[in-house]
Amino acid sequence: MENETTETSTSGCGSLILGMGALSRLIGDPKYESAALCALRELWGMWSSLNLLGTTLDISTGEWIVYSSGIGAGPWYIEVGQSILNSLNLYTKVERGFANIRDVTTMQLEDHQHSFFLAET
């Protein structure tokens, strides 16, 4: 298509697996799920030497879009991520998962863990 971008978000691959898998099963034709799985396997083979995946890929060339790839973003991001994970473990880790913080001034916990917590954190 004219003026169509060839850039795609790698996070969309997970959505495609679910959507195309459901479509294939609903209509009884495995080709959609097979194509999505092929894309996932291809993407999975593109880990960087730092063991990271970028966020944006040019689907016509298979190259990472450098300005938004996130690969090589520097040690500051690793330090911040480590700090966040350490804080989560220190303040919210409970015996069977993680709790919400009800009040950040007292660090009082709430006996609740959102279902998306582990997927999006």
Sum this structure up briefly.
InterPro entries: 6hp_glycosidase-like_sf, EDEM1/2/3, Glyco_hydro_47, Seven-hairpin_glycosidases. By secondary structure, this protein is an alpha+beta fold.
Question: Given the structure, what is the number of helices?
Answer: 5
Q: Indicate the percent of residues in helices.
A: 40-55%
Taking the sheet with the most strands, its summary is:
3 strands, antiparallel
Q: Shape from CA axes?
A: extended
Radius of gyration: 19 Å
Number of strands: 7
- Low-confidence residue ranges: none
Total count of domains: 2
Strand content: 15-25%
> What letter string, H or E per element, gives the SSE order?
EHHEEHHEEEEH
Class derived from helix and strand content: alpha+beta
Give the strand line-up of the largest sheet. Answer: 1-2-3
Q: How are the SSEs placed, and which strands pair?
A:
Elements: E1 7-9, H1 12-27, H2 31-44, E2 56-58, E3 63-64, H3 66-69, H4 75-91, E4 93-94, E5 97-98, E6 100-103, E7 108-110, H5 117-120
Antiparallel strand pairs: 1-2, 2-3, 4-5, 6-7
